[in-house]
Amino acid sequence: MDVIGLVGSPRKKGNTDLLVDQVLAGVATAGLRVQKFYLNDLRIHPCQYCNYCRKHYSCRQEDDMALLYTAIEQCRGIVVGTPTFYGDITAQTKIFIDRCYRYVEVVRHPDGRNSFPSRLPDRRLGMMVGVTGSFGPETFNKQVEVIGLLFNDLNVGFADKVLYAGTDYRPVKENQAILTLAYAKGVEFGKRILNGIFA
Fold first, then answer.
1. CB under 8 Å to 116, separation ≥6 — which residues?
2. How many CA atoms lie within 13 A of 164 on its CB side?
3. Which of 89, 141, 151, 152 could form a disulfide with 156 if both were Cys (CB 3.0 to 4.6 A apart)?
4. 23 Cβ partners below 8 Å, 6+ apart?
5. 0.85 exceeded by the pTM?
6. CA 199 from chain center: how many Å?
7. What is the pLDDT of residues 144-167, one digit of tens each?
8. Integer Cα distance of 178 and 29 in angstroms
9. Mean pLDDT, residues 94-116 taken together
10. pLDDT at residue 1 in the model
């Protein structure tokens, strides 16, 4: 699959899901193949921080993350969508992110600095979709930071974001402007992948 969409919301056809759909629909106009995964439907265990992946470059847990590992390694673009729960990303999204620890190398330099290069050799492009019900847009700051860390570990260039606050008062389905914006950003995202622009 060329581009995968990961929905971290437990609500299908809800705000996050609709925006991810719009982004992927835009991506598809470039002739790229898209696939969406609902994290809530998958059996994903939390990271145990056993450090097995430090030596073996794989995870010792056997669950549905194997599907996502394959999808990540084969794709050229990733769209991660999450609503806001208690001011942060959802548990479903966080468990997925934690299980991507296998993809980052921790390098200790002689001067005491640490760096965190990805173990994945091929560059990808990424986009974040975030929504919040009653919090203001400042809520997204720490979420964007965490998604940025994930994208670093997956060797993903953080290309764009679709962030929408106030869904408790005006749901995504009632806001044609944000739906149109998500679609347009998806179109541009697809073009960048097609042209090999992964920065």
1. 104, 105, 106, 107, 152, 153
2. 29
3. 151
4. 5, 79, 127, 129, 162, 182, 183, 185, 186, 189
5. yes
6. 16
7. 999 999 999 999 999 999 999 999
8. 18
9. 95
10. 87
Q: Phi and psi for 124 in degrees, rounded to 5? A: -130, 175
Pairing of strands 107-108, 77-83: unpaired
91-98 vs 140-153: helix axis angle to the nearest 10?
30
Instruction: Report the phi/psi class of residue 166: left, alpha or beta, with left for phi > 0 and alpha for psi in -120 to 50.
Output: left
Q: From the CB of residue 32, how many other CB atoms can be counted at a distance below 10 Å?
A: 20
Taking the alpha carbons at both ends of the chain, their separation in whole angstroms is 20
DSSP strand E in 20-85: where?
34-38, 77-83
The partner residues of 3 in beta bridges, in order of sequence, read 34, 77
77-83 and 3-7 beta bridge pairing:
parallel
Report d(CA 120, CA 99) in Å as an integer: 15
Contact between 27 and 77 under an 8 Å Cβ cutoff? The reply is: yes
Angle (CA) 141 189 89, round 5°: 30
Task: Tell me: pLDDT of 58 over 90.
Answer: yes
- Which residue type sits at 33? R
User: If DSSP states are collapsed to H, E and C, what string results for 75-119?
Assistant: CCEEEEEEECECCECCHHHHHHHHHHHHHECCEECCCCCEECCEC
